[in-house]
Amino acid sequence: MAIKRYTDGDRPRKFATNLLPMTSDPTQTLDPDLVLAQASALAAHLQRMGVQFLPAENPDRVGELMSHFASIEDGVDAQAASSVSPATSTVKPNDAKSAPTKPASSGPTPGPVSPASSSVQAPSRSVTAVTVAEGDYVGPRLEPAERGSILATLQAEVSGCTKCPILSSCRNQTVFGEGNPNARFVFFGEGPGADEDRTGRPFVGKAGQLLTKMISACTLSREETYILNTVKCRPPGNRNPELDEIANCRSYYQQQLSIIRPEYIVCLGAIAAQELLKSKLSVGRLRGKIHQYHTSKVLVTYHPAYLLRNPAAKKAAWDDLRLMLSDAGISV
């Protein structure tokens, strides 16, 4: 996008937007991340509408704003991929799971990701595939019969973890993960919610029901796959896990992946993708490519909770799964 500074003679008439709640109270300040996220979303919308020039009151800030265009909220990318008119975003970048949306008259119900798609769509902005931790996983490759018992031993260790004082004090139980210890496909999410904290199983709420349907659309069953999260305890109020909380859990999911050594890992949402791939890019920038984590191929798609709030993004998510299935030699 080209940005030009207009002179007083040709500056267009100002127009008002409702992107930010303005206040005359000098004690209140705006969140700079929120401002950048909203400005980026608006700029992307204007660019798609054919706008090529924007007035710049302060040219020194133009470069900084442009550098944030790559971190546009995932929802904008999803809507663009689905050919749906974009909606204004009011969330921080890379926070797809917790993005607020317009409330519906009734709660969202899980729906399958439609297999009726013509061709796999890559994101509009090209991104080089990411390779993390080249080479084989750490440690010896276990025999298939050994993996279940080793995972059970690790699960017992995790159940008594108190590395995070806040999480360990407010959880009902840890949510280790479940599935086939010899799985070819692993689904890697963010963290447990209320239903998961209550049952001790990953992805069992409404988002989990949608994930099960997504897996079924791939001609697979949950039992054939393995499902785990970045963190093993539910953050209070379903907030995003803090960086130190993710770091405290890192060795656990790394050991799980090293034991299973899946051929494919599907990262569900920005937090899982950014943690595994050590990237700050949004889901919209990372999807559409096959990345690498040790010997596992990694694909990135939208979190099922995000898809429940933004059904238009389901087609993009199905395209991501079809890319994986095509690479795996599975016809759907």
From TrEMBL:
Q: Which GO terms describe its molecular function?
A: 4 iron, 4 sulfur cluster binding; metal ion binding; uracil DNA N-glycosylase activity
According to the UniProt record, what class of enzyme is this?
A: hydrolase
Specify residue ranges for compositional bias: Low complexity. 80-91, 103-125
Query: Which parts of this chain are annotated as the region Disordered?
Result: 80-125
Q: Which domain of life is it from?
A: Bacteria
Keywords linked to the UniProt accession: 4Fe-4S, DNA damage, DNA repair, Hydrolase, Iron, Iron-sulfur, Metal-binding
SUPFAM superfamilies linked: Uracil-DNA glycosylase-like
Q: Which InterPro entries match?
A: UDG_Type-4/5, Ura-DNA_glyco_family4, Uracil-DNA_glycosylase-like, Uracil-DNA_glycosylase-like_sf
Stated EC number for the protein is 3.2.2.27
Give residue ranges for domain Uracil-DNA glycosylase-like. 176-322
Q: Tell me, which GO biological process terms does this entry list?
A: DNA repair
A Pfam family of the record is UDG
- Which reaction equations make up its catalytic activity? Hydrolyzes single-stranded DNA or mismatched double-stranded DNA and polynucleotides, releasing free uracil
Question: Which NCBIfam families does the UniProt entry name for this protein?
Answer: UDG_fam4 (TIGR00758)
The entry's family comment says: Belongs to the uracil-DNA glycosylase (UDG) superfamily. Type 4 (UDGa) family.
What is the official name of this protein in its record?
Type-4 uracil-DNA glycosylase
- Species the sequence originates in: Rubripirellula amarantea
Q: What taxonomic classification does the UniProt entry list for its organism?
A: Bacteria, Pseudomonadati, Planctomycetota, Planctomycetia, Pirellulales
